[in-house]
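thread: overnight batch results

M.L. [08:02]
morning all. the overnight job finished for the chain we discussed friday. pasting input first so we're all looking at the same thing
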Amino acid sequence: MSETPYPLHTALSLAASGVPVLPLRRGKVPFGNCHRCAGNACGGRPNMKTPGPCRCPGVCHAWAAATTELAVIASPAWTAAWQRAVSVAYHPGAAGLTVVDLDDAAAVAWARETLPATRVVETTRGEHWIYRGAMSSHNAVRPGVDIKSTMAYARWLGPGTGTMTALPDVVRAMAVKKSSMVRPAPPAVPVPARAGGGECRHRTSAYLDRGIAMAEQRITEAREAVHATVYRTFLAVLSTHGRCGCLTDAHVARLFTAAQAKGESPRHCTDAWTNARTRLGL
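M.L. [08:03]
and the structure it wrote out:
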């Protein structure tokens, strides 16, 4: 396994073959959003399923920045990022692919006994098994195993070896099982009516939206200790809104998107959210 010293050349070659690419900075994470797109103030991008489209010429919106447009990849804004990039990433789902990311030797051994053979790419600690077909991405479907496809990115570590085969049902089944194990959101806790009547203020869109926007801004403006800032922000949001049932998947997705734009991985986001819920007893 080796990485090219010329990430831009690799990116252009991949894009020409129909694989959407983006640069990764040190730490193997995407570049953060520019100040104009902080907190998705720009409205996001179409493939993020948020209002838009974003017309920012920079490398913004984490995995959603991935593109096959050669003119964009070689543009001045992107060239500046490539000069700082340490490797190339791609969006598997947009290329019609799914990557089973095996993090260690035990996970690799499990895959060899359980999964159909397909193209294999060596990684620093394990292997990527690449299948034809896209699906939703899931982390930790079993010890040392992540699924990267839609709304995720994977590092490009070379073409790999072996013949790529169709995405098997056993991989899809792992994702279904993982989803069924997700702890449901806590039920709404009745809130005594305040003097003069009125409903729980958490359920008013203005109060909740302002709180989520402030949390996004706090994460976006972090200049150091990003891990700790993300965790503290998640903790603050859950302590205010976690028990009344007003948080939706869309609100959580906004927080995760802000964190990932600062370089946090999906797994780090999930772990921070889970740890905050556990600390609060949710």
